[in-house]
Specification:
The protein is of the alpha/beta class. The chain has helices at residues 16-30, 32-41, 48-69, 75-96, 102-109, 113-119, 122-141, 148-172, 175-184, 195-209, 278-285, 303-309, 343-352, 399-426, 461-464, 475-483, 494-501, and strands at residues 12-15, 142-145, 223-224, 231-238, 266-267, 270-272, 313-318, 333-336, 359-365, 431-438, 443-444, 450-451, 465-466, 468-472, 488-490, 504-505. A 7-stranded mixed beta sheet has the order 5-14-10-4-9-7-8, sandwiched between helices. Strand 11 and strand 12 (450-451) form a beta hairpin. The chain is elongated, with a radius of gyration of 27 Å. It starts with 11 loop residues before the first strand and ends in a 19-residue tail after the last strand.
């Protein structure tokens, strides 16, 4: 493209070498998250040379990579991809403290238009316009001069040599400090933008789109002990609730559990998620594999498939952006709502009550506390804690406003859980239970981190320590639940608890993981 005529931008002639240098410099300058991490974790001790070496080493490496990959006629599209990827990655990493790895890419791939709309704001628009779109227009308007094959190869080798000389020259004189640092801080690579994001996309594609093995059926040798019994378990899968803000636990700032605290329920103080995002946690919690063995690529029946196959009426009601993440795709009764207030799930469940018979499992997948637009998750009459943050630009709000708004979402969810407990308690002709657990937690600005999705090994407690509530209308079992309230438990317990509640005979069942069992053990 010689020029952008509609903007009246004349074509700008630039040599390929200067073009590569300019794009390399742009990427280095945009990597302030990487430099912030490095400068915050390396003890320079007045070592000015080490201080200056960090950006020079990185610039040398970037220049070396681009000198090899920026081929004739591919330089423009590749550089545009790099600039836009860098721009978007840096914005979300800087403003929400997230890490964009393969799990986050999976989350993004399963995000719908409404969730994207909740992330959109003026700050994002300005950031993308000035640091993404304008550089892209500048690239489109320029004419890159390659000066023939021989000259181009000469320039390519020159830039490659210059980049490697810069990188290894400054690295070699600082090996005493840098080699031990990078050996013990391998996580620094996640801040390397956009290269780590490209790696994450490739990893996601390999994990999710590689050829799948034969679907594994697990229902053999599995049956209900008493198929004529009348049972109902209401499983409420929360969204983005963290235990840190639960007043049933140790939280005292706001009474978010005013409804359930007066019910005969058990709150598990020490419950953990198997992921930090919906795309990981929801499939993982319904898998028979524990977190340490779970893979997103597993291709087998989950506990809902097994229960449906042996005669349990399994119903999935969903009000979440990400839907059921594939967990419910083989169920015969699934209903998806539009992501409004979660009361729609409660109302749908109420409509079904008169028609129930036999064994029933209802899963209510909430919108819950999904951010950053927390203020959209509850109706006005549940605006209990004020002042609130009525925008998705969290940087415009005080910490008090963010916490109040988030707590209002928990308060609203607590009301729904309490209503379900009341219904379960009144069904005298059924064995009933209510089980609530969140899919993952949330960061609300602690250490500059917002939202969720951090790699599990690096995730703060706020993202993995989640609330869980249980109720059983059998007084003996309900008392047993209370005895285990301080046990270390997790999503690993869910599949076995569901089998245990419905009295399933199966080699899949592990009684020591069943929260309703007297043989429950703490997770290893």
């Amino acid at each position: 493209m010689r020029s952008l005529a509609f903007l009246k931008i004349p074509p700008l002639k630039v040599s390929w070498a200067y073009f590569v240098l300019a794009v390399s410099l742009f990427v280095v300058l945009m990597n302030f998250n990487l430099f912030s991490y490095l400068y915050g974790n390396i003890d320079f001790k007045d070592n000015l040379l080490l201080f200056l070496s960090i950006p020079l080493i990185f610039f040398g490496l970037v220049l070396s990579v681009f000198s090899l990959t920026f081929l004739p006629y591919l330089s423009k599209p590749l550089s545009i991809l790099i600039i836009l990827s860098t721009c978007l990655s840096v914005f979300f990493m800087s403003n929400y403290g997230i890490i964009i790895d393969s799990d986050m890419i999976r989350n993004v791939a399963k995000t719908d238009a409404k969730e994207v709309g909740d992330l959109f704001n003026a700050k994002l628009l300005l950031f993308v316009v000035f640091l993404g779109i304008l550089p892209t227009l500048l690239i489109l308007s320029c004419k890159i001069e390659y000066f023939g094959i021989k000259a181009h190869l000469k320039h390519k080798l020159l830039l490659l040599f210059l980049g490697l000389a810069l990188a290894f020259g400054f690295f070699l004189i600082q090996t005493k400090t840098l080699i031990p640092y990078f050996r013990s801080n391998a996580q620094v690579r996640v801040y390397n933008t956009p290269f780590y994001q490209f790696y994450s996309v490739a990893k996601y594609i390999k994990q999710d789109f590689s050829k799948q093995p034969t679907f594994l059926t697990l229902s053999e040798n599995t049956k209900l002990k008493n198929p004529q019994e009348k049972k109902l378990l209401i499983l409420v899968v929360g969204e983005t609730a963290r235990a840190t803000n639960y007043s049933l636990g140790s939280y005292t700032r706001n009474s978010v559990n005013e409804y359930t605290e007066h019910k005969d329920i058990t709150y598990f103080n020490n419950f953990y998620s198997c992921g930090t995002s919906t795309a990981i946690s929801v499939p993982c919690m319904f898998s028979f594999n524990p977190r340490k063995d779970f893979k997103t690529s597993e291709f087998q029946e989950n506990v809902l498939d097994v229960l449906q196959n042996i005669g349990v009426n399994v119903v999935w009601l969903d009000n979440n952006y990400g839907s059921c993440q594939g967990v419910c795709k083989r169920l015969s009764k699934v209903k998806q709502f539009d992501g409004g207030y979660d009361v729609v799930l409660f109302e749908e469940f109420i409509k079904d009550l008169p028609t129930l018979e036999g064994n029933n499992l209802y899963i209510l997948h909430l919108q819950g506390s999904h951010g950053p637009a927390y203020y959209k998750r509850y109706p006005d009459n549940f605006r209990r804690f004020t002042p609130t943050c009525d925008t998705n630009e969290l940087s415009k709000c005080t910490q008090e406003e963010i916490l109040n708004t988030y707590d209002n979402t928990l308060y609203y969810t607590d009301w729904i859980i309490a209503e379900l407990v009341d219904i379960a308690a009144e069904m005298n002709d059924y064995t009933t239970a209510v089980l609530y657990l969140s899919d993952h937690g949330e960061s609300l600005g602690e250490n500059g981190i917002y939202l969720h999705g951090m790699p599990y090994a690096l995730a703060p407690q706020e993202q993995i320590h989640i609330p869980s509530i249980a109720y059983h209308n059998n007084a003996t079992i309900n008392a047993r639940l209370k005895q285990h309230k301080d046990f270390k438990l997790s999503h690993d317990n869910l599949a076995h608890s569901l089998l245990g509640f419905f009295g399933v005979e199966s080699p899949l069942y592990k009684e020591s993981y069943d929260i309703f069992s007297d043989s429950l053990k703490e997770n290893p």
